[in-house]
Amino acid sequence: MRLWRKKPEVRQYDRELYKPVVKCSICTGEQVAGFKDMQSGRFEEVMLIKNNKDLDVFMQLYDVKDIVREY
After folding, report:
1. Are 58 and 49 in contact (CB under 8 A)?
2. Under 8 Å CB-to-CB from 57, ≥6 apart: which residues?
3. For labelling alongside 70, which of 9, 25, 30, 35 has CA 20 to 30 A away?
């Protein structure tokens, strides 16, 4: 039993300028999670998504409730 547990890390991003997005490739099925700049449309990759567990980790890490998929 641990007395002092490590708190889950929550990273911050500017919610007014960026929105969380999962980019999906139609050909290969590769998925990449990241943030899209709402003004310029530029996408910044954060992590590769191999399965639903990876997506859950991304959503917990950045405290994301809803995510958009783009193809």
Report:
1. yes
2. 47
3. 9
What are residue 62's phi and psi, to 5 degrees?
-110, 10
| 62 three-class SS | coil
In this predicted model, what pLDDT tens digit does every residue of 1-20 receive, in sequence order? 566 766 667 888 999 999 99
12: amino acid identity, one letter: Q
Eight-state DSSP code of residue 70: E
What is the Cα–Cα distance from 44 to 61, expressed in whole angstroms? Answer: 16
How many of the other CB atoms lie within 10 Å of CB of 70? 9
The DSSP result for 11-38, as a single string, is ----TTTEEEEEEE-TTT--EEEEEEET
